[in-house]
Design brief:
Helices cover 32% and strands 21% of the residues. It is α/β, with parallel strands linked by helices. It has a single domain, classed as Alpha-Beta Complex (Maf protein). The chain has a seven-stranded mixed beta sheet. A hairpin with a 7-residue loop joins strand 4 and strand 5. The longest helix has 16 residues, at 51-66. The radius of gyration is 17 Å and the shape is globular. Bound molecules: inosinic acid. Inosinic acid binds at residues 10, 46, 74-77, 90-91, 106, 126, 160-164, 176, 188, 190.
Amino acid sequence: MRKLLVATRNVGKKREIRSLLGHLPYEIVFPEDVGLYETPEEQVLETEQTFEGNARKKAEYFQKRARVPTVADDSGIEVLSLGGLPGVRSRRFAMAAPGQDIDLANNNALLQRLAGAPTDRRGARFRCVVVLLRDRGAVPRVFEGSCRGRIETEAKGTGGFGYDPLFYSYDLEKTFGEASQKEKDGVSHRGEAFSALADWLEAHPL
Ligand code: IMP
């Protein structure tokens, strides 16, 4: 079976992507599966101001190293009253020190930024941009997804990863932290973007 490399080391993303692409006739592999271990270079790849720019850089970097068709996801949460922050800085929002629980630090930083904000200033959306790079000179294909909700005043639920326990989904009427994986996949930004990728791959096999 042909390999499709998914350029992420994020455990939460891996779990979701495995289930979102599992039905395709490709062997879904992650960097470690093809012998690509983390490099210092990788830490500073995400310098762009857009999700698409960062996803492209990740796809190009990993495609070049692995020489197999590569998919990269760049995603994050945007709070409307904060002008779209944390946005592309979602992973680094709290500037957590090495060894700290990054998700917990980010969630606390976001709660602090919104301390005292009324419900109508807590509107947010998750966004996900997926870039597929088939080979080196190929035109990158871009797929997007988003979902709407608001930031709770405290964490709810222990499912998912990242900001999930703070994100009350308008579709599910509960936080992503309280939702099952299947429920989240059905409405999430990543679910939407990867379904679009899956549809495209079915029509344009690698
Ligand atoms: P990336 O590796 O730059 O794409 O980082 C994305 C960051 O955005 C993650 O570390 C999370 O903090 C956040 N994020 C993206 N997608 C999700 C999600 O589905 N749930 C919760 N947090 C997410």
